[in-house]
Amino acid sequence: MYFIQNIDMSDAIKFRKMNGIEGKAPFLIGVAGGTASGKSTVCKRIMEKLGQVDMDQTQRQVVCISQDSFYRELTAAEIVKAGQGLFNFDHPNAFDEGLMERTLNDILAGKKCEVPVYDFKNHTTRKDETMTIYPADVVLFEGILVFFFPQIRNLFHMKLFVDTDSDTRLARRVPRDIIERGRDLEQVLNQYMNFVKPAFEEFCSPTKKFADVIIPRGADNTVAIDLIVHHIWDILHGNSNGVRMVSENGSATKISR
Ligand SMILES: Nc1ncnc2c1ncn2[C@@H]1O[C@H](COP(=O)(O)OP(=O)(O)O)[C@@H](O)[C@H]1O
Ligand SMILES: Nc1ccn([C@@H]2O[C@H](COP(=O)(O)O)[C@@H](O)[C@H]2O)c(=O)n1
């Protein structure tokens, strides 16, 4: 019997250094899916399995960025509408596409970047805070519309779509928005019916066809996550012929695909 082990990314870094590919463009992975489908949780699982979570930000070989950081600044009138649940945050126009594209291109060029931090309670980016993204080997970029904009979609080396049914997503979104995003039940349900659900059907769901891998049930799908982690590991090691699995006694074996 074989199980998949947590992967030591230092091997991957050594491989890349030995082969003179240090400093080259990171492997950029887009992770799309409806609201509360589990995009962030899937990214977290991938990072955990690549041994990245307990590491200092500056040392990480895998980093995750959210499309939420690229919500555009609203006008005063739009902020009033947002407070009444009358602004459509699920429409592509709610995002600063230019900033998103420039940032991803900088990341692909191996540059250190400052990314806005989004405040869901006030519908704005924090004025006094940014998140530093240090050059990494793998960059995950997750969000509802990361495959919508062709210029951005074409930058990804791998595209994942987290496909969780809409009842489950709504059941997860309600408590999250009340507890973490400062909303009340009526607001959450009105916003969902008026904007979130129609925009999912018009803008997000049609982008599933661009995905290389569709992950049904999100983070519950440990088989899919393990396969993706192995694929990333293979790419970083320049190994396109096999996946590494480890037997219960710890010896590694390679299984041809
Ligand atoms: N497999 C799961 N089982 C139970 N709860 C989950 C699962 N995946 C995500 N959640 C919860 O659902 C909510 C939304 O998940 P999240 O990963 O943030 O979704 P997204 O990034 O797609 O909006 C969070 O509160 C998270 O803890
Ligand atoms: N001020 C805002 C900005 C965005 N939203 C909602 O967030 C959802 C996207 O984030 P997920 O983590 O759920 O992917 C999106 O559906 C927006 O409706 C918001 O409520 N307020």
UniProtKB/TrEMBL annotation:
Pfam families documented for this protein: PRK
Keywords linked to the UniProt accession: Kinase, Nucleotide-binding, Transferase
Catalytic reaction equation(s): cytidine + ATP = CMP + ADP + H(+); uridine + ATP = UMP + ADP + H(+)
Pathway: Pyrimidine metabolism; UMP biosynthesis via salvage pathway; UMP from uridine: step 1/1
One GO molecular-function entry: kinase activity
Domain of life: Eukaryota
Phosphoribulokinase/uridine kinase domain: residues covered: 28-223
CDD domains: UMPK (cd02023)
EC numbers on record: 2.7.1.48
Classification via InterPro entries: P-loop_NTPase, PRK/URK, Uridine_kinase-like
Enzyme class, UniProt record, top EC level: transferase
Lyase as UniProt keyword: no
Family per record: Belongs to the uridine kinase family.
NCBIfam families according to UniProt: PRK05480.1
Protein name per UniProt: uridine/cytidine kinase
Gene this chain is encoded by: LOC108563206
